[in-house]
Each structure stands twice: as structure tokens, then as C-alpha cells.
TrEMBL record, chain A:
The chain crosses the membrane at residues 12-32, 76-97, 109-128, 140-159, 196-219, 239-263. GO terms for cellular component: plasma membrane. InterPro entries: BP-dep_ABC_trans_perm, MetI-like, MetI-like_sf. Belongs to the binding-protein-dependent transport system permease family. It is a multi-pass membrane protein. It comes from the Bacteria. It is found in: Cell membrane. Residues 72-263 form the ABC transmembrane type-1 domain. GO terms for biological process: transmembrane transport. This is Carbohydrate ABC transporter membrane protein 2 (CUT1 family). Keywords: Cell membrane, Membrane, Transmembrane, Transmembrane helix, Transport. PROSITE patterns: ABC_TM1 (PS50928).
From TrEMBL, chain B:
CDD domains: TM_PBP2. The chain crosses the membrane at residues 27-53, 89-110, 122-143, 172-197, 218-243, 278-300. Residues 85-301 form the ABC transmembrane type-1 domain. Belongs to the binding-protein-dependent transport system permease family. PROSITE patterns: ABC_TM1. It is found in: Cell membrane. InterPro entries: MetI-like, MetI-like_sf. One of its GO terms (biological process) is transmembrane transport. Keywords: Cell membrane, Membrane, Transmembrane, Transmembrane helix, Transport. It is a multi-pass membrane protein. GO terms for cellular component: plasma membrane. It comes from the Bacteria. It comes from Maritalea mobilis. This is Carbohydrate ABC transporter membrane protein 1 (CUT1 family).
Length: 278, 310
């Protein structure tokens, strides 16, 4: 490895790290900056790094004068629901992939890979028809079902990686002691995969939180809109209400970020485990 | 391959119930996933594929029906398709190249402990959490010379003669969404590669150092081979996702100016929603699907060799 850190090397390292942090944060800073700039200065002081005046009006009007809180609540329901059900279904599937050899396994894995390979647009019309047939249009339940289906393949590969990392002897020992396989899964394996479950939950939560296309197609009443669709209402045909939109966007980043920071530690382990073995 | 493996519990005891359980159990665990994916993705996919062999143009409702391979002949002769294919190639390659190497660089930096590492990790991974719609609008703003700072910086640095919007310049427009996409995607590679780096046994490096290997030599001989399987699978997944990822392009440039940023998946979007030609949109999607399948098979084959090589 490197000879004991000479100062120049250390300085360069910190410089590189600072560049990365700057690159990652600057656009997010810009979002917040537009949100706190008074409307009349948004364009005139557009290129300035720091606005000459500062206001929270945009946040106030987003919170109290628009339906933002409704969108926010709907997004919360959909994202949490999707994260929960996807993780449940993907855990079972990942467990089967990890612990059993069975007929058709390769085909099922191949089909799951194929689900990642085409633009969702191609199947939006048929999905619309199916959801209409099931009377699940304009319903949060319908949205949760669709999101769950689309997130299950990736989540399954992720969970399979975690299960692969847990020695089989553990549950076999439990089964010899008289547990059924399901009991062994619940009592022995489940606690060990908690980090993996957290990672999967977080990953799916962020994905569902920011999904726009399906939400746009399958939801049409104001009361059922999710946050990204609501965000789009700030963009009208003629003008964009930048201040309010960026304020709403900033507010909407908060739960995503909280979730992200919470799962940070687990996520690192989770993704590779899935990626390597997937 | 039979389903009853020698290790199956209860197999030796020969109790029919247990054996039945062993046969059925994996499908039980898989059934929710299979039913859900079949109903919501695979059935619509088959329907979607069938569109490509029909004429479904909402603007010409009376000219519908099966048309065989007519849509594919049209595709072959469509200059916009070939243009979009070329753009898809550069979009995917450009985004992937910078996401990967910058992500790898970040992972290497974060691999060694330093003061404040946890905080830095948290901050640099934030872009992955911003919805694409929002980051597209935000980057479009940043690139706009009237209201955004980037063109002025480029002009001040002498890279640009005077502040211009690169999104309006057919020669450069694709770089706008690529920069936004690189910003968004670095965290993915940083996370995966960091985790892989941390699983490399430390003593390998020490042994190499004792044998007089340089930093570069141990990077090439130890780090790269250990990362290779992870790299293969993440590069494959990201390639597929990026090639399909039209959000940023659609929001920042809408495929323009003069189709200079139109990739296949944004072309599909405009074909379906502006021209309401769902049959041709499906044909385009199938072309993309076939290309990505071929690519995935190639990568999986390569990965097999790499994994064997270790």
C-alpha cells in the first residue's frame, strides 16, 4: 500500500473528496436557493450564487395554499406500502432462489432480468387496460400493486444475495431441532437478514417516492395524486412556478434523505451482496 | 437435474408428505412474485409485443389490424431510428463511462478511513435520492445562461466564447443530460464498488508490498481482479437502465434540438404520446429489447470467464 501518508498525498485526497462533495451538493444547493429567493428576484438574480433577499414565502404557500400535503400523504402511503409489500414478496422469492434447486429456476431468473430491459412505456397501455378491468384505476392500491411488481425483480436479486451470505447449516440445525422450515426462516434467518431488509426497504422506498410515469397514467383525481405528479402541476403550459416547485421539491427530499441516511450503513453491504450473486 | 437433491431434509426418511413439501415448497415461496410479475409485467409485455405486428394508430382509427412485419420494414428505413440508435449508444457510453470511473474513484477515496468519512458518505450519495423529474428541471436551469451559472463559469474559464446554452446547440446538447445523469449515477457505482473493495482481504496487499510491488501493480493484480465480477454485473444493470432512461432527456431537451438528443426510449415516448402511434412505439421498444438482451448475454458470458479466472 501507499507509503505513510505524505502531506501532499493527503492534501490531494482531501481536495478530491471536496470536489466530489461540491459536485454532489451544488445542484441540491441550487434547488434550495431558488426556493428561498423572492419571486421578483428569481430571474434577475438567477445567476447569482446567493440571492440579495431571502424568503420562506414559497414554503408557506406550498404547505398551506396548495394540495401539497395531500400529495405528500398519498406518496407516503404508496411508498411505504410498496416498500413493505415488495420486500415481503422479494424476500420469499430471494429465499427460494438461494435455498432451493428446482425446475424452471433459470427461466424464472431470465424472465426477471427481461423485465428490466424495455421502456415501461411499451406496456403502459396494456397495464392501463388490466387495471381498468380490475377497477384499480385512480386508486392508491392499484399504484402499490404496479410498483410492487416492477420493483420485485431487482429486490429479489438483492435479497438472494443476502440469503446466499447466510450459512445453510443454521437453519438446518434449527430444523433438526424440530422447527419447520418456515419457523426456522422466521426465528433464525429473519433476524440475520435485518440489514438486508432495511437496505431493500430503503431502496424501494426511494424508487416509489420518485416514480412519475405510472402515477401520471393511472391516477387522475386530485385527491389521489402522488407527489411527483403534484410537482408537475407547478409546470403549466405557459409558465413554471419555479419558487413553489423548488420549495415543494426541497420539502419532498426530506423523507427520502431521512430514509437514505437511516439505511446508509446497511445499503452498502446490501447492494454488493445482491450485485455479486445476482 | 431432478428436484430431489440428496441434501433435502426428510428425503431419506421417505415420508411422502415431507417429500411432497420439498417438491412444492420453492414454488410456494416464489408464487407471489411470479403471479405479480406475470400479471402486471409479462402479460402486458406480450400484448405490447403484439402491437408491433399491428397497425394501432389512434389518429387513423379505421386502419387497424395485423400487418405482419410492416412496422419492422418501416423501422429499417426510418432515418430517425438510426439517428436515435447512434444517440442511444453515445448517451449510454458517455453516461456509463463517467459514472463508472468517477464512482470507482470515489469508492477508492472512501475505502480508506479519514476524519468525517461518515458525513462525506452521506452527502455524496444524496443525488441518488433526487427524483429524475426534479433534477432534470434543475439542471436545465443551471445550464441556462439567463438564469443559471454554468455557462458563465465556462465563459470565464475560456472554454466557451460567450455564455451560451449548450442544450440549444445540436453539437453539444447531449452533454447536458449526460452531465445530469453522471451526477445522478455516481453514487450507485460508488456504493457497489466500495462494498466490493471492503471485502478484499487486507493481507493480500501486505504480501504484495513485501514482495516489492508498486501501488499500481497491486491495484492491477489484486484490486481489479477482485472487483471484476461486481463490475461486470453492475455495469450490465446500469447499461440496461441508462439505455432505457429517457426522463432526463425528455425534460431537459425533449429530444431536440433537431433530434440531436433523441435516444430510442425518448423517441418511443414521442411516438406513443405525441403521434399516438402505439404500434410503432412497440416496434422501437422491441428493437431496443433485442439489443439489450444480446448485450446482457455477452456480459454474462464474459462474467463467467472472469469468475472462473479467479
Amino acid at each position: 500500500m501507499q507509503k505513510t501518508a505524505f502531506p501532499i498525498g493527503a492534501v490531494l485526497r482531501y481536495f478530491a473528496i471536496a470536489l466530489y462533495v461540491l459536485f454532489a451538493l451544488f445542484p441540491i444547493y441550487w434547488l434550495v436557493k431558488i426556493a428561498v429567493t423572492p419571486d421578483r428576484l428569481i430571474y434577475t438574480e438567477g445567476t447569482q450564487i446567493w440571492p440579495s433577499n431571502f424568503t420562506l414565502d414559497n414554503f408557506v404557500s406550498v404547505l398551506f395554499l396548495t394540495d401539497f400535503l395531500v400529495y405528500f400523504k398519498n406518496s407516503m402511503i404508496v411508498s411505504l406500502g410498496t416498500a413493505f409489500f415488495t420486500t415481503l414478496v422479494a424476500t420469499a422469492a430471494g429465499y427460494a432462489f438461494s435455498r432451493f434447486h428446482f425446475r424452471g429456476k433459470t427461466i424464472i431468473i431470465a424472465l426477471m432480468l427481461i423485465t428490466q430491459m424495455f421502456p415501461l412505456l411499451m406496456i403502459i397501455a396494456p397495464i392501463y387496460k388490466i387495471m381498468a378491468g380490475l377497477r384499480l384505476l385512480d386508486s392508491l392500491t392499484g399504484l402499490i400493486i404496479v410498483y410492487t411488481a416492477f420493483n420485485v425483480p431487482f429486490a429479489t436479486f438483492l435479497m438472494q444475495g443476502f440469503f446466499d451470505g447466510i450459512p445453510k447449516d443454521l437453519e438446518e440445525a434449527a430444523m433438526i431441532d424440530g422447527c419447520t422450515r418456515f419457523e426456522a426462516l422466521r426465528k433464525v434467518i429473519f433476524p440475520l437478514t435485518l440489514p438486508g431488509l432495511a437496505a431493500t426497504l430503503g431502496f424501494i422506498f426511494t424508487a416509489a417516492w420518485s416514480e412519475l410515469l405510472f402515477a401520471l397514467m393511472l391516477i387522475n383525481s386530485d385527491a389521489k395524486m402522488t407527489f411527483p405528479v403534484g410537482l408537475k402541476t407547478f409546470v403549466s403550459k405557459f409558465a413554471v412556478d419555479w419558487g413553489q416547485m423548488m420549495a415543494a421539491g426541497t420539502l419532498a427530499l426530506i423523507p427520502s434523505c431521512l430514509f437514505f441516511i437511516l439505511i446508509q450503513r446497511f445499503l452498502v453491504k446490501g447492494l454488493t451482496a445482491g450485485a455479486v450473486k445476482g | 437435474m431432478t428436484m430431489a437433491l440428496p441434501t433435502s431434509p426428510g428425503n431419506g426418511r421417505g415420508r411422502p408428505l415431507k417429500r411432497f413439501q420439498w417438491l412444492v415448497e420453492p414454488y410456494l415461496y416464489l408464487s407471489p412474485a411470479i403471479i405479480l410479475i406475470a400479471l402486471v409485467i409479462l402479460v402486458p409485455l406480450v400484448v405490447g409485443v403484439s402491437y408491433a405486428f399491428q397497425a394501432i394508430d389512434l389518429l387513423n382509427p379505421f386502419e387497424t389490424g395485423w400487418v405482419g412485419f410492416a412496422n419492422f420494414e418501416k423501422l429499417w428505413a426510418d432515418r430517425l431510428f438510426w439517428k436515435a440508435l447512434t444517440n442511444t449508444f453515445w448517451w449510454t457510453l458517455g453516461s456509463l463511462f463517467f459514472q463508472f470511473f468517477l464512482g470507482l474513484g470515489l469508492a477508492l477515496l472512501l475505502n480508506k478511513p479519514f476524519a468525517g468519512r461518515g458525513l462525506v458518505q452521506g452527502l455524496v450519495f444524496l443525488p441518488w435520492a433526487v427524483p429524475a423529474f426534479l433534477s432534470g428541471l434543475n439542471w436545465a436551469w443551471l445550464f441556462n445562461p439567463i438564469i443559471g451559472p454554468i455557462p458563465h463559469w465556462l465563459a470565464a474559464l475560456g472554454i466557451m466564447e460567450k455564455p451560451q446554452n449548450i442544450l440549444a446547440n445540436p453539437e453539444l446538447a447531449l452533454w447536458g443530460p449526460i452531465v445530469a445523469n453522471v451526477w445522478f449515477g455516481i453514487p450507485f457505482f460508488a456504493i457497489t464498488l466500495l462494498a466490493a473493495l471492503q471485502s478484499i482481504p487486507r493481507d493480500l496487499y501486505e504480501a504484495a508490498a513485501i514482495d516489492g510491488a508498486s501501488v499500481w501493480q497491486s491495484f492491477i493484480k489484486i484490486t481489479v481482479p477482485f472487483l471484476a465480477p461486481t463490475i461486470a454485473i453492475t455495469v450490465m444493470l446500469r447499461t440496461i437502465w441508462i439505455a432505457n432512461f429517457a426522463d432526463l432527456i425528455y425534460i431537459m431537451t425533449g429530444g431536440g434540438p433537431a433530434n440531436s438528443t433523441n435516444i430510442i426510449s425518448s423517441y418511443i415516448f414521442t411516438t406513443a404520446f405525441r403521434r399516438l402511434d402505439f404500434a410503432y412505439a412497440s416496434t422501437l421498444a422491441i428493437a431496443l429489447l433485442v439489443l439489450l438482451l444480446a448485450y446482457a448475454m455477452l456480459i454474462l458470458q464474459m462474467r463467467k470467464h472472469l469468475v472462473k479466472g479467479i
